[in-house]
Structure formats: structure tokens, C-alpha cells
């Protein structure tokens, strides 16, 4: 009899956990979906954009200067993906770049996944 009760409780637990999805205020599913950032002027967003340019400069031995974040989106995965459009200065001309940064703040992980000048 206790096996049936255990099976029943585990089944109920798994059933309700299958609905463990985060929703934004507008009802949009957040886990796995890309959501637009609220403001490109947010200090956290600027920090990620600056990080992307700095990391790109280290790897490529470039000297791009971060100017601003134009737009972006975030995605909740086993951490946070940041997909940003940033502007950089390169030899006195402004260029637009598409960057992807993966971050796990609790693990102190932040890495540049891609950086493309468009």
C-alpha cells in the first residue's frame, strides 16, 4: 500500500512541476524565450555591452571603443544570454556590432559567445 501512496505522490509532484514555467507581466513565457530589454541605458545592460567589447579587444588585439547599447534581448537558460546590438568607435568611425554574452552571476561566469561587426 505504501508503494501506491509513494507512486501517487511522486506522480502528483512530477505533474505539477511540469508546469514550472516563468511568465513575464504580459503573460509571455520567459524561460527559453528572448525578451527585449527594458532600457539600453540600464547600467547592467551597459556593463554587458562594455564587457563584450573588452573581451573582443583582448582576443583580437583590437582597440574598439564601446559607445552605447542600441537594443537587446535576454534569454533565461542555465543562466542568462544577452543578445545586444552595440555601437563601437573604430578609428573615428562608428560601427554596429551584434554580440552574444552568456552569464551565470551566481557562478561568477561571464563569457563572450559571439561578436560580429555588421
Description:
By secondary structure, this protein is α+β, with helices and mostly antiparallel strands. 29% of the residues lie in helices and 42% in strands. The chain contains 2 helices and 5 strands; from the N terminus they run αβαββββ. Strands 1-2-3-4-5 form a 5-stranded antiparallel sheet. Strand 4 and strand 5 form a beta hairpin. It is globular and about 40 Å long. It starts with a helix and ends with a strand. The relative contact order is 0.15.
Low-confidence segments = 3-23
Question: Which structural class should the secondary elements be placed in?
Answer: alpha+beta
Q: Based on CA inertia axes, which overall geometry fits?
A: globular
Q: How many angstroms separate the termini?
A: 65 Å
Tally of helical runs: 2
The percentage of residues in β strands lies in 35-45%
Please state the average pLDDT score.
Answer: 84
- Tell me the major beta sheet: 5 strands, antiparallel
Tally of strands: 5
- Give the fraction of residues assigned to helices: 25-40%
- Mind telling me the C-alpha Rg? 20 Å
Spatial strand sequence of the major β-sheet: 1-2-3-4-5
Brief rundown of the structure:
The chain has 118 residues and is of the alpha+beta class. Helices cover 29% and strands 42% of the residues.
Task: Quickly list its features.
alpha+beta, 5 strands, 42% strand, globular
Question: Would you spell out the secondary-structure blueprint of this structure?
Answer:
Layout lengths: L1 H16 L16 E3 L6 H18 L4 E13 L1 E12 L2 E12 L4 E9 L1
Antiparallel strand pairs: 1-2, 2-3, 3-4, 4-5
Amino acid at each position: 500500500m505504501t508503494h501506491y501512496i509513494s507512486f501517487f505522490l511522486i506522480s502528483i509532484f512530477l505533474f505539477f512541476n511540469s508546469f514550472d514555467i516563468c511568465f513575464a507581466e504580459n503573460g509571455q513565457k520567459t524561460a527559453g524565450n528572448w525578451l527585449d530589454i527594458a532600457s539600453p541605458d540600464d547600467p547592467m545592460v551597459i556593463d554587458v555591452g562594455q564587457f563584450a567589447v573588452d573581451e573582443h579587444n583582448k582576443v583580437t588585439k583590437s582597440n574598439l571603443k564601446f559607445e552605447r547599447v542600441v537594443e537587446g534581448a535576454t534569454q533565461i537558460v542555465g543562466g542568462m544570454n544577452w543578445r545586444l546590438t552595440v555601437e563601437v568607435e573604430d578609428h573615428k568611425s562608428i560601427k554596429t556590432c551584434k554580440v552574444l554574452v552568456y552569464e551565470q552571476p551566481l557562478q561568477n561566469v561571464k563569457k563572450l559567445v559571439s561578436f560580429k561587426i555588421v
